[in-house]
Each structure stands twice: as structure tokens, then as C-alpha cells.
Amino acid sequence: MSGTDDGRMTALIAKLDAVLGPGGLLTARSDTDAYCTDWRNLSPGRTPAVLRPADTDAVAACVRLCVEAGVPLVPQGGNTSMVVGATPDNSDGEVVLSLSRLNRIRSLDPLDMTLAIEAGVTLKAAQDAAAAADCLLPLSISSEGSAQIGGVLATNAGGNNTIRYGNARELVLGVEAVLPDGSVFNGLRRLRKDNTGYALRQLLVGSEGTLGIITAAVLQLSPRPRQLEVALCAVETPEAALELFGRFRREDPTAVQAFEFMSGTGLDLVLALIPGATLPLEQRAPHYVLVELASGRRDGTLRGLLEDVLGAALEDGTVGDAVIAESEAQRQSLWRLREEHSEAQKRAGASVKNDVSVPVSRVPELIRLATGACETLIPGIRPAPFGHLGDGNIHFNLVQPPGMDPAAFLARDHEIMDTVGAVVRALDGSFSAEHGVGRLKPYMMPDWRGGAELAAMRRIKQAFDPRNLFNPGRVLPAEDMPAGP
């Protein structure tokens, strides 16, 4: 950074300090480092300052000052991004804007079944607030204890219950956001129907902070289930897992709340590397399914439905073994086997993550073909696919071969992602199902979303953020970036 730039940044930081007040500005490396490292530790960056505004007006003031100085902003929530979307690059020129102090629940209406909430509230805290009012916020993801609402919406998070309730986008009725000119878009409406022009909230949801900084939202709640039933099933093949899903859906499609696939390799890593994780089945299997049924009725029929479907599947060999949770503690124990997959893979060494989706009917092909292609590419590689079979979103993750240098493995990440991507494309899928694009995958956009689609995205970005100061380098590739690694 030149002396002129140093002076510009020093002057900007002094103005920001005056706006933010005590505790609102961090500049010491010892304080900012945690905001500069992504969860996967793929691309540590540097920032001259972390801004911690406490309300929407302060966010807007910070934006106006940074835009005036021509300094780019990186919005950050709980910093749980899987695609390096919420941390600064290593230029030391991007300022981090943390939403963590915007942590208030503004209102909860159990009759309207709406929750108005600020961006810095964690998803778990939002779920708890809804539960206290005998309502359900159905969005559920593995990182819900630290992921914040602003980031959840900015990435259009999916999660375990998408099959029944949809992605985050389907739960958003209204949004408040600060736009790149420092103005505040006040769209916090609680209406189910509001057909008045372009749905700006839906442009902001899923934009990964490139079009605006979400500061609050109105979320749609649901009634809390009165019955929950969970089972872990061992299956020989992904085809058997899909067959089991079809049986539950044909029996009662409204009852299926989650249907999660786990490979034997992935679950073996959980059992080996996560303390306290145990398999409540007699033998290990090539693959597993975790199914959760839910109902608002109190008539006790849900257990019978689960037992009937599983009984028939066990009898004809579709399922090799199964266990049904008999308590809330057992339910949580079964879910832990699914939720600890990312942490177990992190402990197993370097991994390349592919958050992909294909039509539900083609999930078995994805698992079989991508496994074979990656094993051919790197002998000894450990494919550990898992995820949301019920909506076609599989996290096709690859763990380094035992003994391989982690850096050497990660150096081939584009090659690995493109190998999986070739299979996904042939199956009419997408390279990003719920994690977004971030800084990790913009290079794929021209090839996957080129032509009119990418051109339209660029025009939208230009209209909202003509100076490219909101999360630059995320989602959209540089104009001259080639299609490929």
C-alpha cells in the first residue's frame, strides 16, 4: 500500500472510530486475525480494520464512509462459510464489517407466525426464540450454533429440512439492508402476498453480500411438530437409499422432514475422530440413511408409519438394519452422527468439498460415477459423500489419501472439483447447491452460468454496486477470467 493509501486508510479509520464508539472498531492484528481466517483455513487474509456497528444506522454510516474513501467492504456473520465468502483477501485493503452486534429480536408474532430479527442473531438463538413461543423456525444447518441470520440469508442456506420447508429464501418475508450507496432498504414487511414490483428481497437473499448488507429480516415460522420420529438405517447401495426415500414419500409425503445420506467412509471418520460418537447398529454398512418424520398431530400414528415402512424394507432387503430413537437424547445422538461429518473430515486431513445438486432420481448415479472418477484421478483418495438425498443436494467431499501431503492434495483442488463437476453437469446438476460461490469458485461461473445469465448478473451488480466495493471477488469472476482453473 502506498503512502497516499496509508494516509487515506488512517483518515478513514479515524472517522469510523468516531462513528462506532467504544468496542466498535478493531485494528490490532491480535484482534482482527480471527476475522481473517475462514472456517476451513483455506485462505487466511489481512484487514486494516474490523468494524462492529451496533445498529443499522451505524452500518449505513460505515458504508458511506468506506464508499467515499473507495475502500471495499467484506460483510461477515458467524464466519462459517465453506467457500471463503466472508473473509478478506491478503491485500490488507479490504475492511471487514461484522454484524455480530446486531443481535436483537425485534418482534415475534405467534398468530402471524413471523419473527423479525437482526442479522447478528445466531440461527440457534432464533430457533430457541421461536420455540419459546411454541413455533418452529424450520431452517436447520450443522453450524447453526455460530452461523448468524444475516449470513444464512446472504448465502440462501439450505440445510436438513429443505425437503419439507424449502431453503432460506422460502422463509423470508421481508428484509432490511444497507445498499452500496449507504441508503437503507426498509423492506421488513410481514405480508404473505405483496405483488408490488420487483422482489428486491430475493435479489439480496443469496447474493453473498455483493449487492447489499442484510441487517434484519422477517422470517416465516411454522407450527411446532407434536411428534418426531428418527431412524438410522443401514443400506447396501445408494439405490436402496433412494428406494427407501420413495417409499416414505409415497406413504405420506407430508411426514418426511429430513432424509439424509451418509457413506460408510464418512461415518467411519466420524466414529474414529469424534469423541463419544457410537454406531447403534450391530455391524457397519457401506451406506446409511437418517430419516426424520414429523407431524403436528397428537394421535401417535407417526411411529406406526415409520415402523411399517421400515418393517417392509427390512423384510425385502432394501434395508439391512435399522434403529429407531426411543428418546430425545437418542434422537440427538443419531443426528450427531450426521452433523459431525464436516468436523471429522477436517480432523482427517485436507479435504476438497463439492456442494453439488442433481435431480433426486440421479443421486445414486452421482455417487457411483463421481466416486469412480475421483478414485481414478487420485488413487487412495477417500470419497465421503453425505447430505440431503431428499432434495438432491449431496456434499461430495474428498479426503486426502492417508499419508499424502495436505498441501499437495489441496493444490489439485480445481482438478478434483472439475472432475466431480463433469459428472454433475452430465446429470443436469449444479456445482453449488447451498454453500454459494464465495472466493473459491467464481472461476466456474463462466463455464456453468455464462452467456446471457452471467451477463445479466453482471448488470445487476453494476446497477447496485457500480464501484465494486461490496464483497468484490466473490460470486462473479473477473471479466477476463477464463472458464476453468
From TrEMBL:
Name the domain of life: Bacteria
> What residue stretch is flagged as signal peptide?
none
The record's listing under Pfam families reads: FAD-oxidase_C (PF02913), FAD_binding_4 (PF01565)
- Give the matching PROSITE patterns: FAD_PCMH
Question: Residue ranges of the FAD-binding PCMH-type domain?
Answer: 43-224
Name the UniProt key words of this record, in alphabetical order: FAD, Flavoprotein
Identify the InterPro entries for this entry: FAD-bd_oxidored_4_C, FAD-bd_PCMH, FAD-bd_PCMH-like_sf, FAD-bd_PCMH_sub1, FAD-bd_PCMH_sub2, FAD-linked_Oxase-like_C, FAD-oxidored/transferase_4, Oxid_FAD_bind_N
Q: What is the official name of this protein in its record?
A: FAD-binding oxidoreductase
Q: Which organism encodes this protein?
A: Rhizosaccharibacter radicis
